[in-house]
Specification:
The complex is a heterodimer of chains A (1001) and B (241). Helix content of chain A is 13%, strand content 31%. Chain A is built from nine helices and 66 strands. Chain A is globular and about 115 Å long. Chain A is of the alpha+beta class and 1001 residues long. In chain A, strand 24 and strand 25 form a beta hairpin. Chain B has one domain: outer membrane lipoprotein receptor (LolB), chain A (Clam). Chain B is 17% helix and 47% strand. Chain B contains four helices and 13 strands. A 13-stranded antiparallel sheet of chain B has the order 6-5-4-3-2-1-13-12-11-10-9-8-7. In chain B, strand 12 and strand 13 form a beta hairpin. The radius of gyration of chain B is 17 Å and the shape is globular. The chains are: A alpha+beta (1001), B alpha+beta (241). The interface between A and B is large, with 67 and 51 residues.
Amino acid sequence: MKRKHFFLLFIISAISIPASAQINSSTYGMMEARYLGPGTMSGRITDIAGVNNDGGKTIYVGTAGGGIWKSNNAGFSFKPIFDKYVQSIGALAIDQKNPKTIYAGTGESNMRNTVSIGNGMYKSTDGGDNWTKIGLDSTEHISKVLIDPSNSSVIYVSAPGPLWSDSKHRGLYKSNDAGKTWEKILYINEKAGVADVEMDPQNTNVLYATTWEFRRLPYAFNSGGNGSGIYKSTDAGKTWKELTNGLPKKPFGRVAIALAPSAPQNLWAIVESENTGLYISSDGGATWKEQSATANIRSRPFYFSTLEVDPKDAKRVYRPAFSFAYSNDGGYSFAEASNEGGWIHSDHHALWINPNNTNILYLGTDGGVYYSLDKGVNWKFVNNLPVGQFYHVNTDDQQPYRVYGGLQDNGSWVAPSSIAGGVMNGDWKSIYGGDGFWVQPDPENPQYAYAEYQGGNMARVHITEGTSINIKPQAVSGDDPLRFNWNTPLLAGAKNPKNLYTAAQYLYKSTNKGASWEKISPDLTTNDKKKQEQEKSGGLSMDVTSAENHCTIFTIAESPLDENLIWVGTDDGNVQYTADGGKTWNNVTKNVTAAGIPAGAWVSSIEPSAFDNKTVYASFENHMYGDHNTYAAVSKDGGATWTRFKSEEFTGFAHKIKEDILSKNLIFLGTEMGLFASVNGGQNWFRMKLNLPWYALVRDIHIQRQTGDLLLATHGRGIIVIQDISPMRKINESVAAEPVVMLNDQPMGLTNGKYGGSFPNASGDWNGGTANTIPFIEYYLKERANSIQLEVTDMNGKLLQKLTASNRKGYNRSLWNQRMMPPKIAKGGNQTEQAAFSALQVLPGNYLLKLKVNGKEYVKQIQMIHDASNEFFTEKDRLLQYEKGMELFAMNEDLAVLVDSVLLYQGELQKKIDAQTSKKAKSVLQKQWDAVEKFRLTLVPPVVKGIADLKRLRNEIGDLYAAIVSQEAAPGNLQIQKISALQTALKKAKADFATLRRPTK
Amino acid sequence: MRSIKFLFFLATACLSFSISFAQSADEIISKYVSAIGGADNWKKVNTVVMSGSMSMQGTEISLVRTVAHNKGFKNEISVMGMSGYQILTPTEGWNFMPFNGQTAPEAMTADDVKEGQNDLDAQGAVVDYVAKGHSAEYLGKEEVDGTECHKVKFTYKNGKNETMFFDPASYYLIKSIAVQKANDQEVEITTTFSNYEKLAEGVVVAKSISLPLGPGVNADFTVSKIEINKTIDPAVFTPAK
């Protein structure tokens, strides 16, 4: 029955779903990215804002590295609406008087070691469809945006400002003209910005702001200083007074402040200080009293800065932090949320309370969004926001290959790259805890992988059993204490995958799966002791998590050509290599800095060439010293001299440079703000747009060996797969200069395709889709075509199928199902038949592609070959399938002709009936018509009300035909026997009709 | 039900090619109207009957669209000898999809009738759009399929939005993103247009209309015949009993 709805299902899916030869992203624009997810483990959410008066339907979610997502249905589904802009979002605000107007402050303010940056304020006046940049470009981090509810033109923006450097671009900013111009109305100094701001909704001249002095260095963090404080203005920001009465002794660190909208004299502040705790004022901040100081209230004030009060109930106070706590007594005591609706991810940063139904809450955590219908007691996970923050991505060689990666805050994961029905949440498996980074599949045993959590805590993991063996190297006699990076390298050799590498300040190699390690280097870092005082990190609140570990090895790369040639890069700027498997080391750092790479820049990746062992690529990043420039370079003489890659296109500090595995001229560069590519060995670069976020945080790039798929580990959009980059290998500058190029130059395997699914996303998960498994017909157009046609014919020119053909400038592709045209089906009934949409697959052999572009025809011969990998479908099977399929094809068409004849005859009879005046003669004719009609309804089903799977000759022939031609198998014995029976039935039907229409005597 | 909405969309998409419809948006639209034959020619259009087909994996699906200016439109889709239709008039609308057992037309909701009213303009919403109560906003340039296009947000009198992308060389509309309301939800419908041809009446229309369904897969409608100002029996816009 389901098959019969094929047509309608197809249609349904439709809803739910002057030029130069200069090469750029649009040249390859029809290549598309697939967002694998996961949705089951999302990523850090930085703000949530909802429209107050539309029934709670419209919700915007800001993320740490995945842009802004909008839901029109209270969170049941989302779509990204900020894909052309910087992806780190600090704060969102909706003008509730004009709810299509939205402000986005970019650059989150959860100032962890891996926090990204923004480039100012954006505004949309059409619900997020289009955005305009409106200033504050250099603030880098924005914590809150407030709109005066009594005057939509008045906007306040709190900017903590740059994390890694002194800057004047911080403080509290105000616009009186809806974002056209800005004035800084509260400023302390170049080290202290504004962390929080609140407005009295009943008297919008009253503002509260908290200032914050903070700073990160590559090897330390400080929260706190004399620049921190709490301030109040009663004249809309013209003048400010610091609040101190009852507050702890300064210095302060970060302060979160909240007021009760229903009773705005009531204020709450979590004050980081030597006596961090919750302080409450009931007189508009004139006096304060210390109250609750539970661990959740005090935990990591620099990271948990959210404090909210119910819009209607001044006693209901929410503290989303390490866990979710709520108070019913104005903050004197707190209770914790229940896990009855499922585990609630820890680490909370955003809370939206629907002001018209304050039972409804949306919570943003480090693992995604949750909603509550009972004021935060129970929570349900929103399972379709794929904004996870991966550090690295890897694959194995299985078919379909599996994808591995580690997520910020959220452990290590594996998923199939494709699976029937699409890669959904349940297909992702968590294999190791903590913060995930590198995951290396065991090249010899697919049951195992190597995974880790922060600070070099690594294990060999049994994927399906969930067991693990600790393999972390240990310091031995003569070693300094080991210094592992937050994101410790853990990877197999590119030449010899049996070599497993990891590193602290020393490089370690194992050839027995981590059971034992050999230290194969001295300390390869600068070993600067001043940068090794991590136990003092945090400022007023100690925060020692290995995030600030420094003078460590960050990148390791074994040459794909020589396992003894190993390159190493450190987080303090050293580039070293060994050509003898670690016996001797060569420090080429000076050569790197001679090329314009800043001394001390973090060596984020090294890529020894697979084509020439003297060629090596490297990326560097210096953002921890306030330098966000893009640094990447190549050496073609084994590291003696380096040339820096430069491009106007580059944005963001660089994480990964990757050379293609087949084309030495194809190079990719992933940065904090985009993916870039060069098809001429780095001479020219372009931003890869496709359907990617243009400023995606690309942390790692991997090319799958068998498929040529490009995989991106993004820090905010999960794993992204760009299937088969062969167009980028084929379309080089000379190809691009041609007006039309048909690109299929390899034999194509005959296949029905894989990974279909019956129930599209029944659980509402994020669905990461599947790979296309039928090869595309591919062509290049130098210019957009006004008219285009694409046909497949046999070698004699007989049309097999007309294809849908795109006409875009650049790379185009069309999907041919490798079949001819379906048979004509007998008319009748009101049910669709699968046979009407089922065609025979062509046989192995040569065929012609005919592409007509603006009237000019281009012809390309293609070869279709039998896929011998399927042992259950031999070439002999294929020939038998074709033979029997053709018999049934002919029977379908014979029956259609017969039914047409019947209908014609019935029409003639009807005319006679209508024309006949003799009642008796009319009756005789009518009986004849009725007899024919009875006969016709043995051939085809009647028109029915409702759904009916009625079996008539058409269905019998059609169903058997569709079954045989749609499978990758020889027809079964009973199927073949049934063909004979149906042939007999068809023959009899023809005879019966001949008898029926024989003139009566 | 979704298939019905698809047809509803088709109606919009197919009409858009003929009507698609303040450097300012006003200038862009003015150049577009000139490119498609000029306002004078379009103002002479009272009826449009288009016939075309779509090939779905080799199976032909035929489509006939009939529009009488501000009086009615009908979309007929036929496959396997069965025909379904959608009818809209200024006050009523019906859907009939017999492919899955429906035996009688179903009335459209009042919201759907209201939403579809723009489609009754056989001369194109862009022709005299200001006088008709529509508005347009220029949003700068944006790349569409390799072509840097003019981007215009067109807002219909009834509040419906459509973002239009015009080829700066020809000023033809090559892509539109219409925001369609369905079941109180907004759905974006993306359509691309090509194969523009001038008709005897002086108007220029796109004869290929494509809806991307996925990588390498489009629903492509090829218009084979267009009749302008053919007499149309008003009964066409009445559902069969």
